[in-house]
């Protein structure tokens, strides 16, 4: 058998080297692509779950804000009522209106039903 010429032997080894470089590059690209797909999937899942949590918390915050506004309104009304109850004239009006009480010498006037 004859020995392969140097030129032919070199081209074969260069072909193998070139093929292994392409295979290695392709493997790295596939590994990088796999990593990016996994990372994107994880990021999407995290974004979605946090969006759902934020929507729930926003709804709770809105409800708590409404309750707080109602409580503030009631507090203001009660403060006004307490302030009016300090006035003797207002107490007299309540006594006349709710309990039918009158000051001595006052003549009550009742509406006539027809």
Shape: rod-shaped
Largest sheet: none
Count of strand segments: 0
Helix-strand category? mainly alpha
> What is the terminal separation in angstroms?
139 Å
Q: Helix amount, in percent?
A: over 70%
Task: Record keyword descriptors for this entry.
single chain; 114 residues; 2 helices; FtsL/DivIC; transmembrane; Septum formation initiator family protein; transmembrane helix; coiled coil
Walkthrough of the structure:
- It contains 2 helices and no strands.
- About 80% of the residues lie in helices and about 0% in strands.
- With about 110 residues, the protein is mainly α.
Secondary structure elements and pairings:
Elements: H1 6-85, H2 88-99
Short description:
The chain has helices spanning 6-85, 88-99.
């Amino acid at each position: 058998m004859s020995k392969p010429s140097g030129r032919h032997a070199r081209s074969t080894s260069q072909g193998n080297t070139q093929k292994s470089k392409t295979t290695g590059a392709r493997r790295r690209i596939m590994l990088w692509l796999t990593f990016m797909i996994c990372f994107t999937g994880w990021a999407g899942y995290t974004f979605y779950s946090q969006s759902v949590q934020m929507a729930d918390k926003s709804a709770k915050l809105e409800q708590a804000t409404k309750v707080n506004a109602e409580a503030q309104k009631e507090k203001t009304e009660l403060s006004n009522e307490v302030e009016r109850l300090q006035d003797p004239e207002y107490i007299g009006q309540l006594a006349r209106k709710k309990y039918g009480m009158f000051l001595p010498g006052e003549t009550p006037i009742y509406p006539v039903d027809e």
